[in-house]
Design a protein that fits this description.
The complex is a heterodimer of chains A (328) and B (322). By secondary structure, chain A is of the alpha/beta class. Chain A has 12 helices and 14 strands. The N and C termini of chain A lie far apart (44 Å). By secondary structure, chain B is of the alpha/beta class. In chain B, the strands form 2 sheets. A 6-stranded parallel beta sheet of chain B has the order 2-1-3-4-8-7, sandwiched between helices. In chain B, helix 1 packs antiparallel against helix 10. The termini of chain B are far apart. Classes of the chains: A alpha/beta (328), B alpha/beta (322).
């Protein structure tokens, strides 16, 4: 099989879903051919195949975009809406939180809302304070939605297909720095089930639980620490919420140590929820406190060296692992 | 103006009285302390809802607000289920999990009842977009108040609907108050319907207290939307004759406003039109009596119905928990 980038993986997943089901359509700012097929080219080539009704370029109207996706989903379609950058969800939270997430429950199960909300973000590209945040914890805190993020191209293809299949809203987070990552193409029809984590690397001394771009950092650190005789197990959650508790707890019960890692700011982050749950359920097996690494509790700064200082570093991850091992 | 035929008049009268008698009954139950729930009275706006629903087909979609009793009952929601939901019972449309502000009944096209002002408009676009995509011929009607015309979603939704020529009817029930704030204290422009022009959209302003004005306006709007010409903004002038919600103080309404709305009360005006069309007092009274009997039965059914099981809080969160 050929190699594909994450961008191509997402495009193929959407393309094959649209080919199979007339109810699947895309809407968002700049997504159609006339605008270049999406600011990151994920919907490139699809307008030519499916027409402007199914690749709808929208005005800059996030509330109207998500609201339209909600309404179309209630009518039985499977919209894939795009919020160009994750910080812009601040403009349309009402539609996501009060409507998409709750309409199944509030209707007693009569109106499920099968929609995917694709969005992009990431620290490290110099976009500053309003174009960089990972805001997954905002959505993980709301009942009624799945929160998904791939760390590699193959998972991107499989998670996108599973997200389009899902009969509930999915917040699908794409990291800007991951679009160019390549994997062997898993091929048509490939699906990665929602709610299933991957053991990205097996290990025995500590469980490093992460997702998205920081999986790359985690794997790099784990490789380096192998040479020092520290065996790190890397768990890639893939679905952040509701997450694969079984895989996480099994890993920590095996290693007896846990570190959570995410690009989002540390306080009140998903790492805090993971740590609390692990401590409640693996207390007898834990050899020390669950530790957390996350972004600095400040807006993402612009100047490159400030931005790099803001991001969780590999040194910080190594330091926390060694502290956990009593080797600091 | 072409006369409304007698069958349609009877239909509108029946729907109007359904809304009114439901409202009267709800307020009586609240007054008597038999139920204690949030309820947003629709007294004064009955005809607008009835005329709008009478202009739709049964399978058209409706999105309404917490003050949505009129649209729900006039569209034909099964009233036992409606009362069950309002009383938080297992027999409710939403198993008691939605309540008065979130009535949903897809079988009668009641797709969303939102508790957030203005949030229904963008969702109505989506329902209409689905109809445009799959060519099912439905229109979507979204009802909201004058207060909702000032939230951002209104602007976003109006622009998008016109851009795509969506089959949607934006029904602004201008009841002269946004929550507790009078129209003149929240909006300086003389009306809402003229905003349609700013979007390149068709706008209609109608007297929501006069069946001969509001019903033809709704028919015109629905025909326009259904024919593929695009959305319509209808502003139905009406009065909210009570407070924002049941029990809310509305002593802030000036005396002259109260006098004006009493003079314009749509119910006596509609009755007069009916009599002019040779309906007899007895005929009209028997329509109301039939509605009352049905409501009394539905209320008793709801009062006697079991509470939802507490397990329901874990169900319908995601498909896996359905």
């Amino acid at each position: 099989m050929a190699e594909i980038t994450m961008t191509q993986a997402l495009n193929k997943a959407i393309d094959e879903a649209m080919a199979e089901d007339d109810g699947v359509f895309c809407l968002g700012e700049d997504v159609a051919a006339k605008q270049g097929g999406g600011v990151f080219k994920v919907t490139s080539g699809l307008t030519e195949k499916y027409g402007e009704h199914r690749i709808r370029a929208t005005p800059i109207s996030e509330t109207a975009i998500v609201g339209a996706a909600v309404g179309a989903a209630l009518a039985g379609q499977r919209p894939i809406c795009e919020i160009m950058l994750m910080n812009f969800v601040g403009v349309c939270m009402d539609q996501i939180v009060n409507h998409a997430a709750k309409l199944r429950f509030m209707s007693g199960g009569q109106t499920p809302c099968p929609m995917v909300l694709r969005t992009t973000t990431g620290v490290g590209v110099g976009f500053g304070g309003q174009h960089s945040d990972m805001l997954e914890a905002w959505f993980a805190h709301v009942a009624g939605i799945h929160v998904v993020t791939p760390s590699n191209a193959a998972d991107a293809r499989g998670l996108m297909r599973a997200s389009i299949d899902a009969n509930d809203p999915v917040i699908f987070i794409e990291n800007i720095l991951c679009y160019g990552l390549t994997s062997e193409d898993p091929g048509p029809g490939y699906r990665v089930p929602l709610g299933k984590a991957a053991v990205a690397k097996e290990g025995t001394d500590i469980s490093l639980i992460t997702y998205g771009r920081t999986v790359l950092d985690a794997l790099e650190v784990a490789g380096e620490l192998d040479k020092e005789g520290i065996s790190v197990e890397v768990i890639d959650l893939r679905t952040i919420a509701p997450y694969d508790e079984e895989t996480v707890l099994a890993s920590v019960n095996k290693t007896g140590r846990a570190l959570t890692l995410h690009e989002a700011v540390r306080p009140f982050g998903t790492g805090a929820e993971l740590a609390a749950n692990i401590q409640e359920k693996c207390w007898d097996k834990l050899k020390g406190p669950v530790r957390r690494v996350g972004g600095t509790f400040a807006a993402v700064p612009f100047a490159s060296h400030l931005e790099q200082a803001w991001i969780p570093t590999k040194e910080e991850i190594v330091g926390q692992i060694k502290a956990s091992m009593g080797k600091a | 103006m072409a006369d409304i035929d007698r069958d349609k008049l009877r239909d509108i009268y029946t729907r109007t009285m359904k809304v009114n008698r439901t409202d009267e009954k709800f307020r009586a139950l609240l007054m008597e302390g038999k139920v204690a729930v949030m309820y947003y009275c629709v007294r004064g706006q009955e005809l607008v809802s009835a005329a709008a629903m009478a202009a739709l087909e049964d399978d058209d979609y409706v999105v309404c607000t917490y003050r949505g009793q009129g649209e729900q009952t006039a569209k034909g929601i099964p009233i036992k289920k409606w009362w069950g939901e309002c009383l938080g019972k297992e027999t409710g449309t939403c198993k008691g999990k939605g309540g008065t502000m979130h009535i949903t009944d897809p079988d009668t096209g009641i797709m969303v009842t939102t508790g957030v002002v203005g949030s229904g408009l963008p969702i109505a676009n989506g329902l209409a977009m689905a109809s445009q995509n799959n060519g099912d011929g439905r229109v979507t009607l979204v009802s909201f108040g004058d207060g909702a015309a000032n939230i951002g979603g209104f602007h976003e939704a109006m622009n998008m609907a016109q851009l795509y020529k969506l089959p949607v009817i934006f029904l602004c029930q201008n009841n002269r108050y946004g929550e507790h704030t009078a129209y003149a204290d929240h909006t300086d422009s003389p009306d809402i319907s003229s905003r349609a022009a700013g979007y390149g959209m068709k706008g209609i302003k109608a007297d929501g207290n006069d069946v001969n004005d509001i019903y033809p306006a709704m028919v015109e709007a629905v025909e326009h939307a259904r024919s593929g010409k695009g959305p319509v903004l209808v502003e139905a002038m009406c009065y909210r004759m009570m407070g924002h919600f049941f029990g809310a103080d509305f002593s802030y309404m000036p005396e002259e406003h109260i006098a004006e709305m009493k003079a314009e009360d749509p119910l006596p005006k509609l009755r007069k039109v009916m009599l002019e069309h040779q309906f007899t007092e007895d005929e009209l009274d028997s329509i109301v009596a039939e509605i009352d009997a049905e409501i009394d039965e539905a209320v008793q059914h709801a009062l006697d119905a079991p509470l939802p099981s507490t397990d329901e809080i874990y169900k319908d969160v995601l498909e896996e928990t359905a």
